[in-house]
Amino acid sequence: MRRLFPILVAILVLTIVFWKFSNTEPSGTKHTGTNSTAMLKTLLKPKVARRSVEQSPPSTNAAADQAEEPTVTGLSADQIAAYLLKYKRNAESLLTAFAECQDKALLKEAAEKFPNDPRVQLAMLMQDKSDSELTSEERNLWLERFKKSSPDNGLPNLLTALNNLKEGQKDIFVAEIMSSNAKPGLSAFYVQQMQSREEMYLSAGLSPREAAEKALQVPDVSLEAHMKALAQRLGEMQKDYLAAGDGVAANKIAALGVNLGHRWADPNSSPFVISEMVGIAIQQIPLKNLDPNTYYDFLGKTAAERIAELKAERGELKVFATDLSKYYVQMSESDRMIYMNRLKMYGERGAWKWLQQTYGTNGGAVQP
């Protein structure tokens, strides 16, 4: 039996743990202690240079494969250096190497050499403030650069909204979310990051399947937490307007939150199911404050009907986690590659549908 890569375990952990996170009450943007975001970041943090990839060849013992810890170690410093040399230390390779080893010198080099690259701009903005050397003025500068380099991407506006949320500027906060919703795209470059990671692991000597599997690791769930924080603030504003008797303003804020969640859950925004889960959770925040039996134009149905739809979508994602763990171990080498290529092209949900059609009980190659 081939070794089951830790991405499967990570996906299941994401599904179970983030499910809990998506139902928590508003708590701001700072997540510490034992909450689910911290747990996810700990579980998904790359293992750096504990031993090189060449020192841990695939086992041929099925029993040992099942018993050993499902973790592939990170790349060695020499492997990362060779990768950077091969790709001439361009913006993409510097960011990918930084994500692997968390050496801030690599991010600093990328920022100095390629300040106009949108992926570099996002990486700079996603540094935790407690670890970041950016001043408030520098952060604003990176936000403006990101907006300029990505005029059709709504993410720079959402990060600007988050920045203004922390500074208490409510009007700008709402205006930036409206601007984001008006833009055609919403991307954190997850697919590009997956492709870059795969190339890095291939250059380190991993097999195509191993490189593709390892590249599927979710880059950073803190962005998902930031989106939830935006939705929580919108929910608080919605409640404030309702308490003041201004139902029209409350509904406008609710529509803003629902649209934000719908866009974030779109596979065109992110290929990962975790983003869809967060998008569902974002939509539920304003929906819970609405009259369940009232028809709302911005929903095209009653609030209760939309909540039921979201519940059904969450149920499908539970099935996804179960089916993935059940079928992936049965897949051939070629089918695993097909699955991972489909994930990059159509997202996890699209790849899941192919997996069900190919390996499910109603017409699969392998019966469970």
Describe the structure.
The chain is mainly α. It has a domain of 183 residues. Helices cover 65% and strands 1% of the residues. It has 17 helices and two strands. α16 crosses α17. The two termini are 16 Å apart. The N terminus and C terminus are likely disordered.
Brief sketch in words of this structure:
By secondary structure, the protein is an all-alpha fold. The protein has a domain at 6-46 and 217-358. The chain has 17 helices and two strands.
Overall number of strands: 2
Question: What's the arrangement of strands in the largest beta sheet?
Answer: 1-2
Q: What share of residues are in beta strands? A: under 5%
Q: Could you spell the SSE succession in H and E letters? A: HHHHHHHHHHHHHHHEEHH
Q: Pairing-aware structural class of the strands and helices?
A: mainly alpha
Helix % is: 55-70%
From the structure above, extract its key features.
368 residues, mainly alpha, two-stranded antiparallel sheet, 17 helices, flat, disordered N terminus, disordered C terminus
